[in-house]
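Holo model, 4'-deoxy-4'-aminopyridoxal-5'-phosphate. Inputs:
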Amino acid sequence: MKPLESPSMRAVVEQLEASRIREVANEGLGRTDVLRFWFGESDEVTPAFIREAAIASLHAGETFYAQNLGLPELREALAVYTDALHRGRGASHWVDRLAVTSGGVNGLMLASQALVQAGDEVVAVTPVWPNLVAQPLIMGAQVRRVPLRVQTEGPRAGAWTLDLDALLAAITPRTRMLLVNAPNNPTGWTLDADEQRAILAHCRRTGTWILADEVYERLYFGGGTAPSFLDLVEPDDRVIVAHSFSKSFLMTGWRLGWLVLPATLTATFSKLIEFNTSCAPVFVQRAAAAALQRGQEVTPALVDHLRTCRDTLVPRLRALPGVTLAEPLGGMYAFFRLAGHDDCLETAKRLVREAGLGLAPGSAFGPEAAGWLRWCFASRDTTRLEQGVDLLGRWLTP
Ligand code: PMP
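Output:
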């Protein structure tokens, strides 16, 4: 058979880098003896009452298209949820600012589609989950990375911190959009309210959009929810906040998220959703409504458990030779440096092959994180974490 001619795809799409986490995971394909901490999800199944709401919806025959922006009942419930977490302006303040999306990743892509075009300049705080940077690149934008800095001394050695002055200096009137993910995947860094205030004030001056990825806002160990741009924004601010059911409600496979938008954009996003996915599946939205209704049964217990996981993993990892690691303030990842193992992609592959331990390489999140490894500690059974540390310890000092 004659081979296909080389398809003339857009160069930027053709040149997208494949996921390095997948590249490591492929080392473990077909093996049952690998302890896997490489992906960003818990091994806990979605709570039964959420699954049952989806099943009831399917039994009731809800198998049809629905509103682009999401079921009105779900948007109402999200407005109440948002209001309870952010400022208490009343649910009616939020309801016209909400769009239900097919996962957080879809919401973020919609924002890039709406805001950036070829040649635009986008600033991103890095290292960061790679999808966030790939999306404006796909739209043809230039992405300028502003790296977090690693603290080298003191009790927080290994913590990643923001150089606020460097970030503000990078955002100019030419900057179309700022991408910031806090609590951050992979570093666990979070923004504080003063930094958010300074960033917002600066972006108001430069006319820059802020796309804030706050999908980990509930997975925060400082008490309550992580500081959010939603606590600060006025309705007409150029700020879009992306959220997800994946992390706070143990619903990664369901693919449901939402955006909080300036109200003037909602109708445009409704059109964009029509052309992307048309709507999120109704039975998934019913499950999400149930999750919100009884959310107090899920998220606080999850955060308590994640804190136990973190406190199990972090001191044990720190006790290993060559490990630098600060306790993460939010999220579900321990992000650590391993001295003498600068090629972290190769290290992660060797750990799979030689130790049966599955971690994500830091370089998957950007060149500034080369030499680091990410360990997702959302594990139902904390003894798995202890076993993983034992595997790493034996590999380091056989
Ligand atoms: N943002 C960040 C920072 C993430 O880590 C993830 C998931 N890994 C998402 C967004 C998207 O989550 P989802 O598409 O599952 O809602």
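Residues 11-46+298-396 form a domain with the Aspartate Aminotransferase, domain 1 fold (CATH 3.90.1150.10). The CA atoms of residues 204 and 324 lie 38 Å apart.
Archived with the compound record.
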